[in-house]
Amino acid sequence: MLYFEDLTPGRRFETASHTLTQDEIISFARQFDPQPFHTDPEAAKTSVFDGLAASGWHTSSLTMRLITASELKNVANGLIGMGIKDMRWPQPTRAGDTLRATIEVLAQKASGSKPGFGVVQLRWTTLNQHDEIAMQLETSIWVARRPTEQA
Fold it and tell me: How deeply is 15 buried, as exposed, middle or buried, from its count of CB atoms within 10 A (0-12, 13-18, 19+)?
């Protein structure tokens, strides 16, 4: 298990990767972000993206899936998010892109009101196969502290 004490500033985690297909991009977009530049390859050619692009929410959801399959799946009480700061998608994700994520611990603070917990601030960076940033955000998670032995 990973506890608050294990998530020290500077610690980094890496995920596996996933290659997106055109069908995945269109299927996700039809359900959650039905805009032509996400659902119609022909219409997307005349969009600001100059071709089919995955929804930013798709990139973010895929990142969450990769993270929950990484070593961070072992956070003692789960990945309990408290909020997101500065989420951005600097460039579009395309069919054929292979995404992976790096997670860096930025800070940690023990809870003053709940002594068995603390807040850990993380930066998620999703990279494509060219090491270009597809998505980046900062988030805080609520993490259990390591149980102490009772005498």
Answer: buried
- What type of residue is 36? P
DSSP per-residue letters across 79-139: -EEEEEEEEE-SS---TT-EEEEEEEEEEEEE-SS-TTEEEEEEEEEEE-TTS-EEEEEEE
pLDDT tens across 33-68, in order?
999 999 999 999 999 999 999 999 999 999 999 999
pLDDT of residue 148: 83
Q: Which two tokens stand for residue 95?
A: 């069919």
Biggest CA–CA distance in the chain, Å, is 70
Q: pTM score, two decimals?
A: 0.94
Among candidates 143, 139, 147, 130, which has minimal Cα distance to 94? 130
